[in-house]
Amino acid sequence: MSVLQRFEKRLEGLVEGAFAKVFKGVVHPVEILNAMQREAEAHKAILAGGRTLVPNRYVIDLSPYDHSRLAPYAAALAQELAQSQAEFIGEQGWTVYGDVIVEIERGEGLDTGMFRVTAEVYTGAAEPAPPPPAYDPGAGYGPYGPQHGGYGPPAGGPGRNARLVSSDGRTYPLQVGSTVIGRGDQANLRLPDVGISRRHARLDFDGGQVVITDLGSTNGTSVNGQRISAVALNPGDMIQIGTTTLTFRVDG
To answer: How far apart are CA 127 and CA 120, in angstroms?
Structure first.
């Protein structure tokens, strides 16, 4: 089933059988989704490593008549449009910053049946990540894979710097404390990968070792090919989140 077919099916449930009646004589949501897909195609940008970045924020201006008719469904419709657009972007193998956002506005001067789609790459205002839960090695960080031998030897230490290196060569130094990886505004390390959750995983670095914890992400976190809940990292470990691979390195 295509993205458009799934979208139409969800719309039928959204308006509880009144699908034809609600959308008769007004702009059809499938036309909006088609326009959003075209906007994504038209605004592609190639990133380092060959990845394709597309807009994640879409503002839909409807005519005053269409806007008033669809007002009772605007919030739910925006959510369905965002979900379907995210599915489309994922199927194309494209990437976005943060979540796909759709906003439905009243467009003065637009005739009935007319609409306008504005697309942009929206990074949002940087916000500090919420503090992590209290550290409890007996409760929240195990069990660890046997290949790691529990916490293992310290990953960092005096004169050493821990960092993550992506497959395209980008380096992300780790600071002492907690670093949240994700796509959302609350992530300290934001990655444009639709397979990554808004708050996907957390790295806790005490200056001597780094522990990675999955934050209940949709697609999970793997270290060296094994899905983990939390584990201490050793130099050379390969972290997989979404379609992104990060190698843990220690300098010094």
So the answer is: 20
Reading phi first (left if > 0) and then psi (alpha if -120 to 50, else beta), residue 197 is in beta
Q: Are 190 and 98 in contact (CB under 8 A)?
A: yes
Token pair of 224, please? Answer: 């060296």
Dig out the tokens for 100 from the structure.
Answer: 């796909």
Question: CA distances (Å), 143 to each of 157, 180, 222, 246, in order?
Answer: 24, 21, 14, 22
The DSSP output letter for 160 is -
pLDDT digits (tens, 9 = 90+) for 129-177: 343 333 233 333 333 333 333 333 344 444 468 999 998 888 999 988 8
Q: β-pairing, 57-62 with 101-106?
A: parallel
Among 50, 32, 31, 52, residue whose Cα is nearest residue 42? 52
